[in-house]
Amino acid sequence: MPALASKGFAPIARADARVLLLGSLPGQKSLADQQYYAHPQNACWPIMRELFGVNGCYDERCMGLVTKQVAVWDVLRASVRPGSLDADIRQETALVNDFETFLNTHIKIELIAFNGKKAEQLFRRMAPSTCIEHLRLVGLPSTSPAFASMSYARKLDAWRTVLSIRR
Fold it and tell me: 7-21 burial by CB neighbour count: b if 16+ within 10 A, else e?
């Protein structure tokens, strides 16, 4: 029996977003909970709390990000991926999100920050280059618990540096 494709979520964004944070594709826990970065050991939401002061339930955290002009999305809208590891994404089944339309309706975005190497690789390989010519693209360390070789403190420092946030 063939594996079913995982399907991504709609972006968390307002029209005035200046930063777009991109992951690869939601993992199993995120899919089950229908929330970005739902795995309890994922460092994304703790980092967002440190950098932007977002707190509370999922909806409150999302609203906090959009008021700070930060959008969240994934590179892929769907792909077969058994489990949650980026290495298990089956590239031949990968479907990229419509970045051309998104960026044409979110014209203030100036920075795309990638949550991990796989997100950056997929985006650079699959997204139309014409829609990103004027944007700054920056890779960040993955917040995934699978990337345990880097401490939370080092991840936070890297994210803080790129997003130009000071305590």
Answer: ebbebbbeeebebbb
Q: pLDDT exceeding 70 applies to what percent of the chain?
A: 96
Distances (CA, A) of 5 to 37, 41, 48, 103: 18, 24, 29, 25
5-160 is classed in which CATH architecture?
Answer: 3-Layer(aba) Sandwich (3.40)
Q: What is the pLDDT of residues 23-72, one digit of tens each?
A: 999 999 999 999 999 999 999 999 999 999 999 999 999 999 999 999 99
Helix, strand, coil % over all residues of the chain, rounded to 5: 35, 20, 45
Residues 151-154: contacts with CB within 8 Å, 24+ apart? 152/43, 152/46
| pTM score above 0.85 | yes
Give me the residue spans of the domains in the chain: 5-160
Complete DSSP assignment for 59-109: HHHHHHHHHTTEEEEESEEEEE-SSS-GGG--GGG-EE--HHHHHHH-TT-
